[in-house]
Amino acid sequence: MTEKTFTKVFSQFLNGYWGAFHEALEAQSVTPRRLAGSLFKALRTEHWMFEGMYVGRAKSALDGLENLWRDLEARRYQWPDPALTHADVAKAQRLFEELFDSLVLQGQRFPEAQKEVLKHAPHGTPKQPLRADAAR
């Protein structure tokens, strides 16, 4: 992996995929009984984009997230806009942490690039407490 590729993948993970999950949780904190279809669609889109570029040891974590989103999608057929459950959030958090750890390990070869991506990550990382408002 080159430094340029790492920067692109790590940025996509933090700002795209993790960011979409963070946005979904933030919105669900306002309306706890539902997850708007547009946010779920954005989350799925970010998953597919990241899945297409990720090469690393945490492939099982990525597969676990795919299964989680698939289960949530199946619930959407039973009732509109179901919320993520506490168990869903806990599982997703754990899987995002595994992916993050994998990327941090890969980024050890590019410490300055890693530091720069982390510096500009508006949603923080899966290892940090969730930020209340990433738009600030």
Structural class: mainly alpha
Helix content: 55-70%
Strand percent estimate:
under 5%
Task: Give start-end ranges of low-pLDDT stretches.
Answer: none
- What is the β-strand count? 0
Number of domains: 1
Q: Output the radius of gyration.
A: 15 Å
The separation of the N and C termini measures 33 Å
Order of helices and strands: HHHHH
Helical segment count = 5
Shape assignment: elongated
Mean pLDDT figure: 92
Largest sheet: none
Structure description:
- The chain has one domain.
- It has helices spanning 3-30, 37-53, 59-78, 86-106, 111-119.
- With 136 residues, the chain is an all-alpha fold.
- The radius of gyration is 15 Å and the shape is elongated.
In terms of topology, how is this protein built?
Elements: H1 3-30, H2 37-53, H3 59-78, H4 86-106, H5 111-119
Helix pairs in contact: 1-2, 1-4, 1-5, 3-4
Summary of the model, kept short:
By secondary structure, this protein is mainly α. The protein has 5 helices and no strands.
Name a few traits of the molecule.
136 residues; mainly alpha; 5 helices; 0% strand
